[in-house]
Design goal:
This protein is mostly helical. Helices cover 78% and strands 0% of the residues.
Length: 483
């Protein structure tokens, strides 16, 4: 029947796909037999299956060689002749049990792969034949490493193929090589991003993340196809993010990168990482030709993660509500700077360089974040720790008022100078809150002449602010009149 199918495909052009259809049917039959019958796993059956696959391999390879001589459907013939030996080796490895068969099958697959790649490299003309030989060679290498190596090393070994594929694609551009490269990279991304969390049995070391990132980056430098190069740079950026995140968890949890725990320190570091990478992704999107929507969507998700993470730091992980020792008593240069100061800078950069439609929201987050950060630093400076238990008194209360007043004045003046109504309104609201705090809290304990002097000082400050505001308004009006 097999011989009849092959002969018929040579005689009738409408039956040219029958050889590949026969391969799929017979391979599926072997798989179903081994899934459904226990007798299929005996030594006698293993020998019979190997003999059968050997005969099939000789028939298919002979058919491919004869078809190439006839020059009828050369692409189908060459693909069949190069790929079926690898399919047979995969079936032998999976469904036969013989001594040393694992190492032998892996070595044979590697030899076939290297032979295909060598023959393709020696081929002078850049046609389908060279492409199919290179494609089959990399599949042979992939099968060899899948058989021989464990899951962690396998990922790194598969990533090494991307470098050779990028180099070969530069010499012989073809959609098949491009597709193979993308399939390998998508498998690697899935393996490193998702599987370690849902399937802990897949062991993954930090070296694998670093190696895959480095190999993909090298491949992006080797490839000369601009669109594919941009795609490779995007994947390398994704792997770089994974490597940074995993290196952080490796350091925090003493090597246990996949520990199901999330604390204040990790949240502080992740906020900086996600925010910075979100802005990088957004900028990177303008340099890409085909992946701009992907980069901008990734930037949007990362900046959303920054905002949500910042919300967690203000609520669930806020050291004011939870006694912990993660924040040292050293003033200013402590974890508060990273957890609550760095996000303010990232919000400001996002307001300046991210989507104009979200500019007001990010400026609002930056302003509120600055106010929160300064209050936390003041509390830490006066108390040496962060806690709501000690009552704020004396100098600490006055420090809050002074800082709030300075922020309100700066917002009012800058909002007036730049004609930014929302900033002016925010400054006015903060000024009213500050004045209310001074009258109701700060001066409640003052008596006599000291109380009078305090009222006079506050009044003079407000008068000075009013005169400055009027001066700026007159200057702005004069400039508009001249124009």
């Amino acid at each position: 029947m097999l011989l009849l199918i092959l002969v018929a495909s040579l005689r009738n052009e409408h039956l040219k796909l029958l050889p590949w259809l026969s391969v799929l049917v017979m391979s599926l039959a072997i798989i179903l037999v081994h899934l459904g019958f226990s007798w299929a796993n005996t030594t006698e059956h293993s020998l019979a299956l190997q003999q059968l696959l050997l005969v099939w391999t000789c028939i298919y390879c002979g058919f491919a060689f004869f078809s190439l001589q006839k020059t009828r459907y050369p692409a189908l013939a060459l693909s069949l002749g190069t790929l079926f030996p690898l399919i047979a080796l995969a079936l032998i490895w999976q469904y036969t049990e013989l001594p040393l068969h694992k190492g032998f099958v892996s070595a044979l697959s590697l030899i076939l792969g290297l032979a295909y790649i060598g023959r393709g490299h020696l081929r002078q003309q850049k046609d389908f034949g060279k492409t199919w030989l290179i494609f089959a060679g990399h599949l042979g290498y992939s099968l060899a490493v899948i058989i021989l190596l464990d899951t962690a090393t396998l990922t790194l070994a598969l990533a090494a193929q991307v470098v050779s594929l990028a180099w070969l694609h530069t010499e012989n551009p073809h959609p098949l090589l491009r597709g193979l490269m993308k399939v390998i990279l998508m498998l690697i991304l899935t393996r490193l991003t998702i599987l370690p969390w849902i399937l802990p049995r897949f062991e993954t070391s930090l070296l694998i993340y670093a190696g895959c990132f480095a190999l993909t980056l090298i491949a992006s430098r080797l490839n000369q196809d601009l669109s594919l190069r941009r795609w490779l740079e995007g994947v390398s950026l994704h792997l770089g993010v994974l490597f940074c995140a995993m290196a952080l968890r490796y350091w925090l949890y003493a090597g246990n990168m996949f520990k199901h725990e999330y604390g204040f320190t990790e949240a502080a570091l992740n906020g900086v990482l996600w925010g910075a990478l979100g802005l990088v992704y957004y900028y990177r999107g303008f340099l890409s030709e085909q992946l701009t929507p992907f980069y901008h969507k990734a930037a949007q998700l990362l900046l959303l993660a920054l905002v949500l993470n910042y919300g967690l730091l203000l609520t669930w992980f806020n050291p004011l509500f939870h006694a912990n020792d993660v924040i040292s008593s050293r003033p200013i240069a402590n974890l508060l700077l990273l957890a609550y100061g760095a996000p303010v800078l990232l919000f400001g950069l996002a307001a300046k360089f991210y989507k104009p439609a979200l500019q007001t929201h990010f400026y609002a987050l930056a302003g509120i974040g600055t106010w929160i950060f300064l209050n936390l630093e003041i509390r830490h400076l006066w108390q040496g720790e962060l806690s709501l238990v000690p009552r704020a008194e004396g100098g600490e209360l006055y420090t809050y008022s002074l800082v709030w007043l300075m922020m309100a004045v700066a917002s009012l003046l800058y909002g007036t100078l730049r004609q930014q109504a929302r900033l002016y309104q925010a400054g006015m609201a903060l000024l009213m809150i500050t004045i209310g705090k001074i009258f109701l809290i700060d001066m409640s304990g003052l008596t006599g002449l000291l109380r009078v002097v305090s009222f006079m000082g506050l009044g003079l400050c407000l008068l000075g602010l009013a005169f400055t505001h009027q001066y700026i308004e007159r200057s702005q009006s004069a400039k508009r009149t001249e124009v």
